Input
Amino acid sequence: MARIITHEPLTLTGLAPDQDRNATWELQAASYDLPPGHRLMLVVTGRDDLYSFASVDGSATTITSPDGSAACLALPLG
Output
């Protein structure tokens, strides 16, 4: 069982194969108490019919960090 705590759609267009693209976005603010023993998960998907479907069948999305820079998910607590 899972529960969506927050979400923020982002659609990138005009992409070309083998061309890197930086994307930065902020999730909608939310207040949620995570019960002891439960886990928090970040889900990134290349398709969400609720918002937009601009993907090409057979295409792939690869998520990486720029060289020398780690990906970051900041979660303000408290």
Q: What stands out?
A: The chain has a mean pLDDT of 80. The CA atoms of residues 47 and 53 lie 6 Å apart.
